[in-house]
C-alpha cells in the first residue's frame, strides 16, 4: 500500500493510504450515480461512507474531543 501526506483546508497534513477495492458491478454503478448526483468523486463517496460506518461503531471517544483528552490525562496519572 502507498502512504501519502495530504493537506487539508486547515493546512494540517494527514497521512493517507491508497487501497484497491473491488465492488460488485451493481454497487459500483450505484456509487458512480451517487458521486455524479453530488458532483464529487467516487472516492469521496466511498471515504464518506466509511467515515460514517466507523463513527457508528466507535462513537464514545471521537478524536480530538475533551473526553478523549481527559481519558489520556487520567491514564498518565
Task: Give your account of this protein's structure.
This protein is an alpha+beta fold. It is built from three helices and two strands; from the N terminus they run ββααα. A two-stranded antiparallel sheet has the order 1-2. Helix 1 crosses helix 2. The chain is elongated, with a radius of gyration of 17 Å. The model has no long low-confidence stretch (mean pLDDT 78). Pfam families: RHH_1. InterPro entries: CopG (IPR002145), Ribbon_hlx_hlx (IPR010985). This is Ribbon-helix-helix domain-containing protein. It comes from Polaromonas jejuensis.
The count of β-strands is 2
Structural class computed from helices and strand pairing: alpha+beta
Helix content: 40-55%
Return Rg in Å. 17 Å
- Proportion of strand residues: 15-25%
Shape designation: elongated
> What kind of assembly state do the chains in view correspond to?
single chain
First-last Cα distance: 38 Å
Helix segment tally: 3
**How do the strands line up in the largest sheet?**
1-2
Main sheet summary: 2 strands, antiparallel
Low-confidence stretches: none
Q: Provide the succession of SSEs.
A: EEHHH
Quote the average pLDDT: 78
Organism: Polaromonas jejuensis
Domain Ribbon-helix-helix protein CopG: 20-55
Pfam family, one: RHH_1
InterPro entries: CopG, Ribbon_hlx_hlx
Throw out a few tags for this protein.
single chain; 77 residues; alpha+beta; two-stranded antiparallel sheet; 2 strands; 53% helix
Topology (elements, then pairings):
Elements: E1 2-7, E2 13-18, H1 25-38, H2 42-57, H3 66-76
Antiparallel strand pairs: 1-2
Helix pairs in contact: 1-2
Pfam families: RHH_1 (PF01402)
Domain Ribbon-helix-helix protein CopG: 20-55
Organism: Polaromonas jejuensis
Amino acid at each position: 500500500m502507498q502512504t501519502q501526506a495530504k493537506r487539508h483546508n486547515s493546512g494540517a497534513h494527514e497521512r493517507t493510504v491508497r487501497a484497491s477495492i473491488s465492488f460488485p458491478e451493481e454497487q459500483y454503478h450505484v456509487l458512480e450515480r451517487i458521486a455524479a448526483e453530488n458532483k464529487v468523486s467516487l472516492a469521496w463517496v466511498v471515504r464518506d461512507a466509511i467515515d460514517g460506518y466507523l463513527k457508528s461503531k466507535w462513537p464514545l471517544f471521537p478524536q480530538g474531543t475533551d473526553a478523549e483528552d481527559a481519558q489520556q490525562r487520567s491514564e498518565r496519572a
